[in-house]
Specification:
212 residues; alpha+beta; Ubiquitin-like (UB roll); Translation Initiation Factor IF3; 2 domains; 4-stranded mixed beta sheet; 4 helices; 10 strands; elongated
Length: 212
């Protein structure tokens, strides 16, 4: 049976294991698969069984598909009949879609002192709000010095206050915990912006009774 299909061979790169056996770092397809026999899987996932490599290659040619090694470590290796070009394209498309849908979140840090004054607190809070609005997580660190270390409740109350002040924009992901001389808390941005208050439409005026 004649076949005009052009087979594509994946580039072959090899390294050497401790025992001296070659280890392939690329998927082997078609004539790159150099073993006496393979466990063959059909294009729809059906198990064909163990066949000679010559027969597997012939079946791939007759079906106008590629013979792709999917489990090189198995004995014998497992190979599947598939359209390798289409498979690689679909895999790349899924990877791009996954990266596009992945939300890139970085962690910003904001440091406070337990006895911070009102003006400084408002400045630090604005920074946290800006970070959360930008889609970033915020690690808030309370730094204790000297005798302040014996008053951890000051830092705990301050972190609670901050969490409540930015609750519309972020949620506490990691509760406050003591870490040496510091106390830390992580706030993650909310997935959805806070819902705005709905405007209530005024009730329609009653229709005038028809004049009799």
């Amino acid at each position: 049976m004649g076949c005009d299909r052009l087979w594509v061979s994946a580039p072959s790169h090899h390294t050497t294991s401790i025992r001296g056996d070659p280890i392939s770092t690329e998927t082997r397809i078609n004539d790159r698969i150099r073993v006496p026999e393979v466990r063959l899987v059909g294009p729809n996932g059906e198990q064909v069984g163990i066949v000679r490599i010559e027969d597997a290659l012939r079946l791939a040619q007759e079906a106008e598909l590629d013979l792709v090694e999917v489990a090189a470590q198995a004995r014998p290796p497992v190979c599947k009949l598939m359209d390798y070009g289409k498979f690689k394209y679909e895999t790349a498309q899924k990877a791009r879609e996954s990266r596009r849908n992945q939300q890139l979140t970085t962690i910003k840090e904001q440091k406070l002192r337990p006895k911070i004054d009102t003006h400084d607190y408002e400045t630090k809070k604005r920074n946290v709000v800006r970070f959360l609005e930008g889609g970033n997580k915020v690690k808030v660190t309370i730094m204790f010095r000297g005798r302040e270390q014996s008053r951890p409740e000051l830092g705990f109350r301050l972190l609670q206050r901050l969490a409540e002040d930015v609750a519309e924009l972020g949620t506490v992901e990691a509760a406050p915990k003591q870490d040496g001389r510091n106390m830390t808390m992580v706030i993650a941005p909310n997935k959805k912006p806070p819902a705005r208050a709905r405007q209530t439409n005024p009730a329609p005026e009653p229709a005038e009774a028809p004049q009799g």
